[in-house]
Specification:
The chain has 4 helices and 8 strands. By secondary structure, the protein is of the alpha+beta class. It has one domain (5-184): Methylpurine-DNA glycosylase (MPG) (3-methyladenine DNA Glycosylase, Chain A), CATH 3.10.300.10. The protein binds a DNA duplex through residues 41, 43, 50-52, 55, 58-60, 74-80, 82, 84, 97, 99, 125-128, 131, 166-169, 171-172, 191.
DNA sequence: ATGCAGATCGTCT
DNA sequence: GACGATCTGCATC
């Protein structure tokens, strides 16, 4: 069952936490792959100096100003992509970064795309999971609430979740210590354990 | 287990 | 012109 847009129209940190356990589905000519979300981070736009939209509108972040439940995808370090989901009301540029998945199905295809058979390494990082799921800028702005090539379905509610500091944003003097990263407690597929 | 260099290019100053 | 919401391989402890 596809998660409706109203789910994403709420407070960004609530959405970030409640995305844990939900299922990301990617369908291409090669087949269908699924992963359960085990790690997310909230990026709170104008009130978050780590957010791409901290300084307002630009071409890169334009989809963040549209409706919730859309894919905000960007390229990082010239070779990886990162997948985010837009949240909140229209006009509020906030997102949730998907940082890690637990592979659920289509594992053979993920392994082929990633060039490794090692299950814990297939989707344990934002760049890795985009590669495993063939997510790139062609999906920029895609609606995750409809029955398309990239969508989100209800999964299983995790027993216990945890909040921690976000990864790789030490440059953000104001918000680097905020506990805006969420994980499924004890899960083996998160990107960084602490 | 920890650390560092290199890859590689879109975005912003 | 500089740098990044990353990942990998290789070196060292």
């Amino acid at each position: 069952m596809i998660i409706p847009r109203e789910f994403y129209e709420r407070d960004t940190l609530t959405v970030a936490r409640e995305l844990l356990g939900q299922i990301l589905v990617r369908e291409t000519d090669e087949g269908i792959v699924r992963g359960s979300i085990v790690e997310t981070e909230g990026y709170l736009g104008l009130r978050d100096d780590a957010a791409h939209s901290y300084k307002g509108k630009s071409d890169r972040v334009r989809v963040q100003y549209g409706p919730a439940g859309a894919a905000y995808i960007y390229m990082i370090y010239g070779m990886y992509h990162c997948l985010n989901i837009t949240t909140g009301p229209e006009g509020v540029p906030e997102v949730v970064l998907i940082r890690a998945l637990e592979p659920v199905s289509g594992i053979g295809l993920m392994a082929k795309r990633r060039g490794t058979e090692k299950l814990p390494q297939l989707c344990s990082g934002p760049g890795k999971l985009c590669r495993a799921m063939a997510v790139d800028k062609a999906l920029y702005g895609a609606d995750l609430c409809s029955d398309g090539p990239l969508r989100l379905e209800y999964g299983k509610t995790p027993a216990e979740t945890a909040a921690s500091k976000r990864i790789g944003i030490d440059y953000a003097a104001l918000c680097r210590d905020k506990l805006w990263r969420f994980t499924i407690a004890g899960n083996q597929y998160v990107s960084v354990r602490r």
